[in-house]
Automatic annotation (TrEMBL), chains A, B:
The keyword Magnesium is assigned to this record: yes
Organism: Rhodoplanes serenus
Binding, substrate: H58, D280, F337
InterPro entries: PurM-like_C_dom, PurM-like_C_sf, PurM-like_N, PurM-like_N_sf, ThiL-like
Name by which UniProt lists this protein: Thiamine-monophosphate kinase
Gene this chain is encoded by: thiL
Binding residues for Mg(2+) 2: D51, D79
Length: 340, 340
């Protein structure tokens, strides 16, 4: 970028320097053509998904470029995993602030961004297939379009939960939402008696999601319905229920919580609402028929992903009932996080 | 958007109101799931492409939302056509300014934007498959990821031009670059003796590209190499040559020019450089072997797309020589348009 911190100019230079090395898939054509070409795997349906993040909205402008790159890719990987799909590759659309102002990004930002993106792409078997890099008068925006595959007809949808199915979540819930509070310095970790490691755990869960790619096959094989938890467990489960024409009940006493989250809630029980509706978990919530639960749990264990039963799909319509620690129903101000 | 000009809130409302009606493909799942699912057409390769546009960079913030929508889709359709591919569908990633400021967009902008997008999607047989809508502290950004298909192994690449191939372009060159000058009011149409209709033609070519979708099959069947002309003919041909390990010569006397462009150049011959390198043409430049030229021309005529031979692929390396009106080589300051 002529206007940034190095010599040389143009989108072509940025692509050659930073992104072409990531385009290891032959169909990417070395990012030296206008398109990518992909022979679809036989007997599969394609699974398509796009998610964007914007500086100042979905990440802090001063977050490390490495964590921004990983987040951009992983939130899309999380969606694929929740649908039972395996990744094939991705396209990257990148808007970069121009000029010499504080917000402008140049090689000092792009080099670690691309390096981390490449590391994640390799780790998740999800090569860069193509992209577009544009200058923008606004903040950094990163839009990833992910392609995945499932054996034909086996996509796990939101619509598919049946009354009696168990509600299961992976990993732990609420870490990222609590981490965001601390990252944004709206609360201090010390207020909850957290040490630096505990704070770092929570903030780290906000900065760098851990998509449950390893759980995709278990979800695909055993779940009636599933989605990833990105906008808050309560709201996302409500969406799954709405799509399935059902309701649900979950018990907060059964929520899988990390040790730091448990400590925060002990000190500030009112943050339970944040845990339930804060978002950025990038875990999977699934409905699993009772007679599939043991097989699902075994497959999850074999994949190394903890899963926890937290409730049940019910007849009827309407948002899930959330039972508080004492067993009475909670009233949540908002079930889901939204920037709008 | 709670912060904009209507009641109701959230991405879900925007999607239900404006984008779900466009998701006519069954694989879009009504935009009510996390992903789209697509059974790839048998015997085909997938062709993937993403292009983004940003307000203040690629379009004017006060351009009509209808033209912005059409441009966002059509610049991607243009790429597909130049590769000989037919469209299958697209994903849309949309960043919208929030707040109540002048830049904020709400329903008054989104309604005509989505309507025009839907009209184009229907006209080009390219349904909306999925997307993401995010709030942004910056300008409107629209990133489209397009999926297309070609019969396996028949993608037309940049690399493939051979010495002796003829250089052919579709439509007319330079209109959009001249239209941009007038749209931006850097020059007045009256300076060139243009009437309102002539000015509107040029500005219209800038605002709303006409992708050469109808030419895709002729390109696929007959061209050795091709790409769309988006960053200026001289620079894009240079890229095609570089990818092919060849050079080229083109004659400006043979350039297909619209009547308004011809009038502008008569009044201001120095704008020839703008015509050659200004960009936004969204025409196709192709290399066609001499023994395929007649068939290509016939197929183009049958498709209703004018094509013009403007030069030849040459042995050697380096940017194409551009012969001016008097037959001598032109020196272009910059061959290609770049925002960086």
């Amino acid at each position: 970028m002529t206007t940034c911190d190095t010599e040389g100019s143009g989108e072509d230079r940025l692509i050659a320097a930073y992104f072409a090395p990531l385009a290891t898939h032959p169909g990417a054509l070395g990012l030296a053509d206008d398109v990518a070409v992909l022979t679809p795997p036989a007997g599969c349906d394609l699974v398509l998904e796009t998610d964007a993040i914007v500086a100042g909205m979905h990440f802090f402008a001063d977050d490390p470029p490495e964590t921004v790159a990983r987040k951009a890719l992983r939130i899309n990987l999380s969606d694929l995993a929740a649908k039972g799909a395996r990744p094939l590759g991705f396209l990257l659309s990148l808007a970069l602030p121009r000029g010499r102002g504080e917000a402008a990004v140049g090689d000092r930002w792009l080099a670690p961004f691309a390096r981390a993106l490449g590391e994640d792409a390799a780790a998740y078997g999800c090569p860069l297939l193509g992209g577009d890099t544009v200058a923008s008068p606004g903040p950094v925006m990163i839009s990833v379009t992910m392609l995945g595959a499932v054996p034909s007809g086996t996509l796990v949808r939101r619509a598919g939960a049946r009354p009696g199915d168990r509600v299961v979540v992976s990993g732990s819930i609420g870490d990222a939402a609590l981490g965001l509070l601390m990252r944004g310095e709206r609360v201090a970790a010390g207020d909850f008696g957290l040490d630096a490691a505990a704070r770092d755990h929570l903030v780290g869960r906000y900065l760098v999601p851990q998509p449950r790619t390893a759980l995709a096959e278990a979800v695909r094989t055993h779940a009636s319905a599933a989605m990833d938890v990105s906008d808050g467990l309560a709201g996302d489960l409500a969406k799954l229920c709405a799509a399935s024409g059902a309701s649900a009940v979950i018990e907060t006493a059964r929520l899988p919580l990390s040790a730091p989250a448990r400590r925060v809630l002990a000190a500030a029980p009112e943050l339970l609402a944040t845990v339930l509706s804060g978002g950025d978990d990038y875990e999977i919530v699934a409905a699993v028929a009772p007679d599939r639960l043991a097989s699902f749990a075994a497959a999850a264990a074999a994949a190394g992903v903890p899963v926890t039963e937290i409730g049940e799909i019910l007849e009827g319509r309407g948002p899930p009932r959330v039972l508080g620690p004492d067993g009475s129903a909670l009233a949540l101000d908002r079930a889901s996080f939204s920037h709008f």
